[in-house]
Amino acid sequence: MTTATKLQHYPVMLYEVTQVLINNPAGTYLDCTFGGGGHSRHFLEEFPNIQLYAIDRDPDAWKRAEELKREFPRNFFFECMPFSTLDRLGVKVFSGVLFDFGISSIQLDDAERGFSFRYHMPLDMRMNPKQGMSAQEFLKTASREQLIEAICDFGEEAQGRRIVDLILKNRGSEVLEFADTFADLIAQHCPRSGKIHPATKTFQGIRIAVNHELEEIQQALPKAFERLQPGGRLVVLSFHSLEDRIVKQFWRKMETSSRAKSLTPKPILPPPEEVKMNLRSRSAKLRILEKFQ
Length: 293
What we know:
It is built from 13 helices and 7 strands. It is an alpha/beta fold. It folds into 2 domains: 3-106 and 213-291, Rossmann fold, CATH 3.40.50; 109-211, DNA polymerase, domain 1 (Orthogonal Bundle). Helix 7 (144-154) crosses helix 10 (200-211) and helix 11 packs parallel to helix 12. The model is unreliable at 1-8 (pLDDT under 50).
């Protein structure tokens, strides 16, 4: 049985990530975005002598991590926390650190989480449903400028201002409370352009805003780098141009300061066969930074 089958989701670029991250078969590693646990499980199965720490701010990830803790009690350790607080971990040095940004397939497919417009469920979209403001609350209370930032800037939606006007016009209506009705509202006024649903970019932008995803990345990358041992690698999978821009800027800063070198002048992209199997991998970009000795 494959890792993907066990977990019912496909960890993106699994073998490429493993090849570039695990450069010491007895090292200590950190998976900052445990998600469905696909990458972590593969590392533990392939390298039985590593020590692997994993974190995730989604409380549901704890349940999935429990299975790995039972199988690898001496090698696997998990904490429920946002990766921007990784400096609170007791471990001071890692051989490699992995980030897999964005939303996991498990979160997207869970109707109750309100990430997907396929379901008639309350709009939530929080990575941790117990903390912060839900997407439903955001649509009800955000200023016009905040909505424009979320949908036009974060979502990169060309018709963003039109959608913001729709939101403001429909405040107080149930249409903004549920994922499918909000998506239908957008589809009715913004016809489909290309293959993706008209609400896709709007949902993405709101999710990024609600979870403060870009700020999380900006805070986490330098903390992860400081915890790398000499020769250690920082490995990042990004799925959005704004995520990738932050990564490239940080890579450039570390290279300019002569503290590291990029091993990916151009990002590694998923092979065509993976994209066919897992369409969600199509926008993935893999970048690697190695800390100098």
